Amino acid sequence: MVNLDSAVGASRKTVTGLDVSYVKDTDLLAAAAVTIDIQTLGVLETAIVKGEATFPYVPGLLAFREAPALLHALEKILVTPDVLVCDGYGLAHPRRFGLACYLGVITGLPTFGVAKSSFTARFVEPGVERGSWSPLLDGDDVVGRVLRTQPGVKPVFVSVGHRIDLDEASDITLKMSPRFRVPEAIRRADSLSRAALRTGSG
C-alpha cells in the first residue's frame, strides 16, 4: 500500500498517472492509477476503483468529485511513486488550487497536473516544435506552462500542484510524451479507466 506520508528525494524514477472516466450521463465512475518508469515508460503497477461520485459536477470543483476515488486507487498501489500526475490543473485554476494541488497536499507527494485545454488563464501559442512552450498567465502571474509535446499538435497545459517546480514538471511531461500528445502515465490511466467501465472489471 502507498505510504501517503512518505517523503521522496529529488531524483524521480517513477510516476503514477491518475484519471477518472464516467458512464455517460451518470455519476458512475472508474478511477485509475498507473505507475510507469519515467525513463523506459514501462508499466510497473496499476490499480482501478469503481464507484459513484457523491459530489455533483460543478465547474472548478472537480477535486471534490474525483479525489476520493483517485485516493482510493492510490491506496491500492503497493510501491509509493516518486511523483503523481493527474489529468487536470494545479495552480492553473481559477482558485489557484486545482485537483493536482488537492491530491498533493493530501498525499504529501510531489504532484502536478497536465490538462488538454486552458481553463481561464491566457497564453500566447508556443512554437510548433516539440518542447516549445509559453507561459500560462493569470493576470501578471505565471500559473503554468503551455507545452508542445508533439510537433504541430495542440499543446498541453502543465501546472504544479505540490512539492515540484514547473521546470521539472515540464521535463517529466516531455519524457512521458515521446509519441503522443498526452503523457504516457495519464494516457494509460485514461485507457484503463475506460476499459474498466466497458468490461465491468475492477
Describe the structure.
The protein has 4 helices and 8 strands; from the N terminus they run βββαβαββββαα. It has 202 residues and is an alpha+beta fold. The protein has one domain: archaeoglobus fulgidus dsm 4304 fold (2-Layer Sandwich), CATH 3.30.2170.10. It is globular and about 40 Å long.
Give a brief rundown of this model.
With 202 residues, the chain is of the alpha+beta class. The chain contains 4 helices and 8 strands, in the order βββαβαββββαα. It is globular.
* Fraction of residues in helix: 10-25%
- Looking at the overall shape, the CATH architecture is 2-Layer Sandwich
Any idea of the CATH topology? archaeoglobus fulgidus dsm 4304 fold
- State the name of the first-level CATH class: Alpha Beta
The poorly predicted ranges are 1-10
Shape: globular
- Order of helical and strand elements: EEEHEHEEEEHH
Q: Helix/strand-derived class?
A: alpha+beta
Average of the residue pLDDT scores: 92
Instruction: Report strand %.
Output: 25-35%
Number of domains: 1
Q: Biggest sheet: strands, sense, closure?
A: 8 strands, mixed
Instruction: Give me the side-by-side strand order of the main sheet.
Output: 3-2-1-4-5-8-7-6
Radius of gyration: 16 Å
Topology, number of strands: 8
Under CATH, the homologous superfamily reads archaeoglobus fulgidus dsm 4304 superfamily
Number of helices: 4
